[in-house]
Amino acid sequence: MNFVYSNMELRELKYFIKAAELQNFTEASAQLFITQSTLSQQIKQLEEELGIPLFDRIAKRVYLTEAGKTFSPFAQKTVADAEAGKIMLNDLMNLNTGNLSVGLTYGLSHLLTNALLHFTAKYPKIHIQVCFGTTKELLTQLEDGKLDFILSFYEAKEKDNFSSDILFTSNLALIVGKQNPLYSRKKIQITDLPKIPIILPSNDYSIRNYMNEILESQDVSLNVQMEINDINMLLHIVEKGASATILMQTSLFNHPSLKAITLSGANLKRNGTITWKKEIYRKKAAKLLAELLSKV
After folding, report:
1. pTM given for the model
2. Quick one: CA torsion of 128, 133, 139, 144, rounded to 10 degrees?
3. Hey, where are the domains in the chain?
4. H-only helix segments in 94-184
5. Are β-strands 149-152 and 99-104 bridged in parallel, bridged antiparallel, or unpaired?
6. Please, what's the b/e burial string for 166-182 (b: 16 or more CB within 10 A of its CB; e: otherwise)?
7. How far apart are CA 264 and CA 172, in angstroms?
8. Is the CATH code 3.40.190.290 the one for domain 170-270?
9. What is residue 7's predicted lDDT score, i.e. its pLDDT?
10. Measured between alpha carbons, how far is 182 from 161 in angstroms, rounded to an integer?
11. Angle between helices 10-22 and 25-32 (to 10 degrees)
């Protein structure tokens, strides 16, 4: 299908994208801070310019037609390209304004904290938004253009729509508190883990998937007492009780009373990375922050 963009405005495309996302003109108009009649009029004008309906209107919901589904990625790319062009022009002028959105997993919090202290002191007028999440959640936001880059233990493959730069290497370790009888140990075999009560992060975390692969390769099954989808809460429970967990050593930055016991018997190293979306413009501010991260 060939689309003619000559009379089209970015505003119309943004309205179309939001309406397609929410499948409701009332909700979309509220988020766009316009009236519903204005949104309906703009969508109708866009459909007239294209010569084909983009939405099916059913009761209070709207659904993309086949033409709408075909048109959607072109609209999103056009808006994204326009935003990238605007960012490039802002970068050419100065670093006195602008926004930077960074996603990260818990284990890299300390790294970003130190870098942000230096960055904000040097560029105080850059507005920074930090978003915590699982690797899967953050990659989705990166793909959607909501983040400039993410910090995690994800390593992009060549076929992926992302590229990753390695920042450091960390070891997977058994994490215990002072009340745990293993606290005095310096090393433990991975084959001894089934004897230990374990609390684990939920399957949403990439570290859990990584751990599962290693344990399966070693034919090791864990005695899992609890699964939690919040790393900070997980560490607090381990800190105050006799259970243990398995995480990267870098996760202990805010828990000095916890101890990381070296696990042996398999390759348990992971690389901390900064991950970008391929083939998009990288903001000058993002590149400068990334440079600071590589030096921290």
Report:
1. 0.68
2. -60
3. 10-79, 92-167+272-295, 170-270
4. 109-122, 135-143
5. parallel
6. ebeebebbbbbbeebeb
7. 10
8. yes
9. 54
10. 43
11. 130
pLDDT of the residue at 92: 60
Handedness of CA 251, 256, 258, 261 (dihedral sign): positive
Rounded distance, CA 259 to CA 244, Å? Answer: 10
Fold match between 92-167+272-295 and 170-270?
A: yes
pLDDT at 261 over 50: yes
Task: Judge: domain 92-167+272-295, CATH 3.40.190.10.
Answer: yes
Report the CATH fold assignment for 10-79. Arc Repressor Mutant, subunit A (1.10.10)
Single-letter code of the amino acid located at 246: I
Tell me 281's DSSP state. P
Residue 185, H or E segment: none
pLDDT tens by residue, 206-248: 899 899 989 999 899 999 999 999 998 999 999 998 899 999 9
